[in-house]
Amino acid sequence: MNLFILAQASNTPVTDANLISGGAGWAGAGLLGLVLGWLLLKHLPDKDKQFDGLIKSQAEHNKELHKACTEERKEQHAEFSKALNSILERASRDGDRNLQGMQSEMQSLRVALQTLSQAVNALSKTESIHP
User: Fold this and answer.
1) Is 19:7 a contact under the CB 8 Å cutoff?
2) CA–CA–CA angle 128, 129, 131 (5° rounding)
3) pLDDT 10s digit of each residue in the chain, 131 long?
4) Residue 3 DSSP class
5) What are phi and psi of 77, to 5 degrees?
6) What sign has the CA pseudo-torsion 23, 29, 34, 40?
7) Where do the domains of the chain lie?
C-alpha cells in the first residue's frame, strides 16, 4: 500500500513495472534485473553445486555404512554357523552315545531275560519231578 501512495505522490504514471521496482523508474528496474540475474546466474547454480556435493557425500557415507554392515553380518553369520555346527556335532555325539548305551542296556536285559527264562524252565522241571 505504501508503494502505491509513493508512486502517486511522485506524479509518475502507476504501472506494473513501477510497482515492482518501487517507483524508481529504469534504475530500479535495472537494479531489480541485476538482483534477479545474480540469483539466476550465480546464487542458484552455487546452491545446486552445494546440494550436489551434499548428496554425493551422503551417498558415499551410505555406501561405506552398507559395506560395514554387510561385513559385520558376514562375521555374525560365520560365528552363528560355527556355533550351530558345534551344537549339531555335540548333539550327534550325544545321540550316538545314548544309542550305544540303550543298545548295551537292551543286550543286558536280553541276557537277564534268557537267564530268568532258563531259571523258570529249570524250576518248572524240578517241580514236575517232585510233585
Assistant:
1) yes
2) 65
3) 555 555 445 555 555 555 665 666 666 667 778 888 888 899 999 999 999 999 999 999 999 999 999 999 999 999 999 999 999 999 888 888 888 889 889 999 999 999 999 988 888 877 766 65
4) H
5) -65, -40
6) positive
7) 2-119
